[in-house]
Design a protein that fits this description.
By secondary structure, the chain is of the alpha+beta class. The chain has a single domain (10-238), classed as Mitochondrial biogenesis AIM24 (Double-stranded beta-helix), CATH 3.60.160. The protein has five helices and 19 strands. The protein has a six-stranded antiparallel β-sheet. Mean pLDDT is 78; it is low at 140-149 and 250-256.
């Protein structure tokens, strides 16, 4: 039997497109999550807010914590994370909800080389003992032109982690040397051996008039890649573009707009 450093938690995922995951904790077991991800918890669960990136603090003092917090600021995440611990007797449950329609993907890091790299906003929660940080890319071009795929989070350890993707999620297995090019926003996660780079879309007319972004993520195997069909940023752009400007109902193109103005006092 393999002994894990991370807490061994049990779980169940509920729902179809608007999912949540229920974590079952034995006494003294804990799970870590982003601030604001918790949906509900039983009475024996206690919360503890921590400063930094959620790594185990095995020394390093204040400067190490400040460095971890600074890295999280680069991803646009909160400076704080939260531990949820079972301090009661018997099994207790705590649930975490997905932030928008999509799928929750359980990742057993011990089966994935003890590390995965994921989009900065896809992490939901993980067993205590899993380290959450950021993954810097070596090539400068990735940093300046990566768009949504620029700064990626890394989850390290041997426990369970849960990430969230939008729309339909597909898992692709890339063979050594096999390359997959995808929109940077559609990349959810990948295993650590995947080589990741940003490529410019060739041809100025293709870039500006083809309806696609200027840059694509180039992923080369071996390893696994998880891809989402509808990045939330793309959905938000469509909603924003379709929203009435200035709150006027006249945009709907019907007589109702004029009638509504009477009730509004316009």
């Amino acid at each position: 039997m393999t002994i894990r450093n991370a807490h061994e938690i049990d779980f169940q995922i509920y729902g179809d497109d608007l999912q949540f995951v229920e974590i079952e904790l034995d006494p003294q077991e804990s799970v870590i999550a982003e601030a604001g991800a918790m949906m509900m918890m039983e009475n024996g669960i206690q919360m503890q807010t921590i400063f930094g990136d959620g790594s185990e603090s095995n020394g390093g003092g204040l400067m190490k914590k400040l460095f971890g917090a600074g890295k999280r600021l680069l991803t646009g995440e909160s400076l704080f994370m939260t531990f949820f611990s079972n301090m009661g007797t018997g099994k207790q449950h705590v649930s975490f909800a997905a932030p928008y329609p999509g799928k929750i993907i359980p990742m057993d890091l011990s089966d994935l080389g003890n590390k995965i790299i994921c989009q900065k906003d896809s992490f939901l929660c993980a067993a205590k003992g899993v380290s959450i940080g950021i993954d810097f890319k070596r090539k400068l071009g990735v940093g300046f032109f990566g768009g949504e795929g620029f700064i990626m989070q890394k989850l390290e350890g041997d426990g369970l982690a849960f990430i969230h993707g939008s729309g339909t999620i597909i898992e692709k297995e890339l063979q050594p040397g096999e390359t997959l090019r995808i929109d940077t926003g559609c990349l959810v996660a990948m295993t650590k051996d995947i080589r990741y780079d940003i490529q410019f879309v060739g041809g100025i007319k293709t870039a500006f008039f083809g309806g696609e972004g200027l840059f694509l993520a180039s992923l080369t195997g071996p390893g696994k890649v998880w891809v989402q069909s509808l990045p939330f940023s793309r959905l938000a752009d469509r909603i924003f573009a379709a929203a009435p400007k200035g709150g006027a109902r006249k945009e709907e193109g019907s007589i109702l707009g004029g009638i509504g103005d009477l009730f509004d006092g316009d």
